[in-house]
């Protein structure tokens, strides 16, 4: 649902557009990569914190390429991979630390969809916002909380249109890292905090 909203309702995705999913092995981006592939994105890029996660996004999910944010300048890599054009849509959960990189990596008339701020909300000194005018960029934040029924219905219909056929055909999967009983909630949090997961962590209540 979150990936559908970010991609279509905010990002304005259409076949042929290029897209960058940050936190590529997160559940939202896993869904987004599959949606992008199924709707013929021009190219799909991801960032992740390990080569294992990048290989998963590329080899398992079908991303075009991935970049390790620990060892690579991902914004420069995106520009190199797109012959300097940048990407049409960026979906970001990181926030402050990625703000400048997003501006640099976005294509002209690009859209940056801001869904989270894991690195904080206060921008570092020296951020250059000139790209907003120079590239005619749009930056929009969003949340699914407090949406009215009309918006929720539109989002549901978009999900049915773009995701449901692929799910029925087995072309889109839900990836689960591990299922814990509720009594092991501490272990579940420790696994999440390790930043080594690919997909959902589920806790069951008996």
Keyphrases for this structure?
9 helices, six-stranded parallel β-sheet, 206 residues, alpha/beta, two-stranded parallel sheet, 8 strands
Summed up:
With 206 residues, the protein is of the alpha/beta class.
Describe this structure in words.
The chain is built from 9 helices and 8 strands. Helix 1 (2-10) crosses helix 7. Strands 3-2-1-4-5-6 form a 6-stranded parallel sheet, sandwiched between helices. Strands 7-8 form a two-stranded parallel ribbon. The protein is an alpha/beta fold and 206 residues long. It is 39% helix and 21% strand. The relative contact order is 0.15. The longest helix has 14 residues, at 149-162. The model has no long low-confidence stretch (mean pLDDT 95). The two termini are 26 Å apart. It has helices at residues 2-10, 27-38, 51-60, 74-81, 96-105, 131-134, 149-162, 164-168, 185-193, and strands spanning 18-21, 43-48, 65-68, 87-92, 106-114, 138-141, 176-181, 200-204.
Strand content: 15-25%
Overall 3D form:
globular
Number of contiguous helices: 9
State the major sheet: 6 strands, parallel
- Which residues form runs of ≥5 with pLDDT under 50? none
Order of helices and strands: HEHEHEHEHEHEHHEHE
Look at the structure and give the mean pLDDT. 95
Q: Give the termini distance in whole angstroms.
A: 26 Å
Strand order of the largest sheet: 3-2-1-4-5-6
Helix percent band: 25-40%
Strand runs, count? 8
Any idea what the radius of gyration is? 17 Å
Q: From the helix content, strand content and strand pairing, which structural class follows?
A: alpha/beta
């Amino acid at each position: 649902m979150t990936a559908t909203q970010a991609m279509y309702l905010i990002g304005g995705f259409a076949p042929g557009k290029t897209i960058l999913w940050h936190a590529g092995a997160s559940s939202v981006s896993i869904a987004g990569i599959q949606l992008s592939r199924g709707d013929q994105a021009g190219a799909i890029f991801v960032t992740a914190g390990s080569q294992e996660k990048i290989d998963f996004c590329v080899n398992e999910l079908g991303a075009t390429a991935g970049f390790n944010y620990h060892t690579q300048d991902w914004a420069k890599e995106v520009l190199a991979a797109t012959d300097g054009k940048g990407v049409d849509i960026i979906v970001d959960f990181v926030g402050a630390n990625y703000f400048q990189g997003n501006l640099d990596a976005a294509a002209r008339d690009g859209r940056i969809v801001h869904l989270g701020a894991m690195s904080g909300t206060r921008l570092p000194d020296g951020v250059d916002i000139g790209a907003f005018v120079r590239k005619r960029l749009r930056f929009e934040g969003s949340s699914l909380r407090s949406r009215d029924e009309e918006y929720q219905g539109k989002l549901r219909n978009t999900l049915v249109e773009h995701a449901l056929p692929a799910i029925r055909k087995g072309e889109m999967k839900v990836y689960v890292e591990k299922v814990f009983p509720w009594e092991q909630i501490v272990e579940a949090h420790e696994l999440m905090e390790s930043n080594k997961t690919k997909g959902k962590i589920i806790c069951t209540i008996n």
